[in-house]
Write a structure and sequence with these properties.
mainly alpha, elongated
Length: about 220
């Protein structure tokens, strides 16, 4: 190799665009997932509140959990934005390397896509779960029987074991509602964990950086 060979261009001007793309991906995709989850679970919450208003405050949990996903994306976006340096004021030389830029892009995509998937999962699970709890509280069934009752809905029996099983559980009471709610809550927790996994990985990847001029070629 000759002594006058130039080092590779590790800090092109377009590296900044890649880094800020990671910032935008973290914020926009996470907010997309948050809005998706809030929309799906919020519509079912309002729908259920028409027939059973007392269950609205308890079933608002999916909406809250969907909103938290947007905070994950905000945290990653702020960290990435603060890690992108400006070019030198006098020399106008960019010290932001493509290695750091792609690390920030991967961190933003990791947090954003994980938040989008988690938001959709929370929305779908919350939609079905909130409606199920509301239907059980209203003592109606989604499957009408051959005998028309309550405008097309059949009533839920008061006993799991039939009419002669005295002292059984109250199927249409609060005990059965709590079972449905706990099951929905567990699914929501594991759905929220998807966004948390993406946040953890994004924070780790965002710490990988290389500054041009830090090493000699």
């Amino acid at each position: 190799m000759s002594d006058n060979m130039e080092p590779p261009a590790l800090c092109p001007s377009w590296a900044l665009a890649v880094g800020y793309g990671g910032v935008a991906a973290a914020a926009c995709l996470s907010n997309w997932g948050s809005a998706w989850g809030t929309w799906k679970s919020g519509v079912s919450l309002v729908h259920t509140g028409i027939r059973h208003p007392a269950s609205v405050m308890k079933n608002v949990i999916p909406v809250v959990m969907a909103g938290v996903i947007g905070i994950y994306g905000l945290i990653v976006a702020v960290i990435l934005a603060e890690s992108i340096p400006k070019p030198g004021a006098d020399t106008r030389i960019n010290s932001y390397s493509i290695y750091t830029a792609f690390a920030h892009l991967c961190a933003g995509l990791c947090a954003g896509i994980s938040g989008l998937a988690a938001g959709g999962c929370i929305g779908i699970v919350g939609d079905a779960g909130v409606r199920a709890v509301g239907y059980r509280a209203s003592a109606i069934s989604l499957f009408p029987s051959s005998v028309p009752e309550a405008s097309g809905y059949s009533t839920i029996p008061d006993d799991d074991g039939g009419a002669g099983a005295g002292g059984g559980d109250d199927v249409s009471g609060s005990d059965d509602q709590n079972k449905l709610f706990v099951g929905m809550l567990i699914m929501l927790i594991f759905s929220e964990a998807l966004a948390l996994y993406g946040l953890i990985v994004a924070l780790i990847v965002s710490q990988h950086s290389y500054t041009c001029g830090s090493d000699e070629f």
